[in-house]
Amino acid sequence: MTEAAFLDAAGFQARTGVSDAVLADLEIFRQRLETANAQMNLVGPASLPDYWNRHVLDSAQLLDHAPDALTWADLGAGAGFPGLVLSILLKGRPGAHVWLIDSLNKRCRFLQSVVDELALPATVIWGRAEDQDVTVQIVTARAVAAMTVLLAYAQPYFDRGAKGLFLKGEKAESELTEARKSWRFEAEVRPSLSDARGRIVSIGSLQRVR
């Protein structure tokens, strides 16, 4: 698999088949991110020109792995990847909701501003991911922590019936090997659509090693 070619808005729409309304919301999100990023460095500035591939396609591909899932929790939601993108894509689907959880207040304020402007099916929570009493079908995260630590954050969600879909890089396999020293789980690793080095890690049946 080779790295995905540079995408613009039209290219993303052609590749994914999203509606004009979804594309418009994603474009507004891009504009708000670009403005906010100058003040709080939500994402690496060099990645902004590749917004549609590096951030949007990277996030959107998760729905291919759980097409029937309506409720998601994004741990360490940061700039809104993948959670804000998922909420834009799920907008209008009955029962859909995304919880965007982050420990930094200024990031939560940014997330809330986008949720409000686009009327998204999402709740922003300022706090520690592992402290929230939220029940979802899928727990997800991108660029939050190594897998051993990430699974500790996610364990309460697994205990309430969630499965995990995590965006990881080229060290995914070695992170899983290390995580198995502390956790028992089922895992499947698939290639990412947005980056040849990226991986989608599916986790189920999580239990701490005694």
Describe the structure.
The chain is α/β, with parallel strands linked by helices and 210 residues long. The chain is built from eight helices and seven strands, in the order ααααβαβαββαβαββ. α7 links the parallel β4 and β5. The longest helix is centred in the first third of the chain and has 21 residues.
Task: Please sum up the structure shown.
The chain has 210 residues and is an alpha/beta fold. The chain has eight helices and seven strands, in the order ααααβαβαββαβαββ. A seven-stranded mixed sheet has the order 3-2-1-4-5-7-6, sandwiched between helices.
Q: How many strand elements?
A: 7
Unreliable residue stretches: none
Largest sheet composition: 7 strands, mixed
Tell me the span between the first and last alpha carbons.
39 Å
Query: How are the strands of the largest sheet arranged?
Result: 3-2-1-4-5-7-6
Keywords:
210 residues; alpha/beta; seven-stranded mixed β-sheet; 7 strands; globular
Write the layout of secondary structure elements.
Layout: H1 9-16, H2 20-40, H3 51-60, H4 62-65, E1 71-75, H5 83-90, E2 97-102, H6 105-118, E3 122-126, E4 138-142, H7 147-159, E5 163-168, H8 172-179, E6 183-191, E7 199-208
Parallel strand pairs: 1-2, 1-4, 2-3, 4-5
Antiparallel strand pairs: 5-7, 6-7
Helix pairs in contact: 1-3, 2-6, 7-8
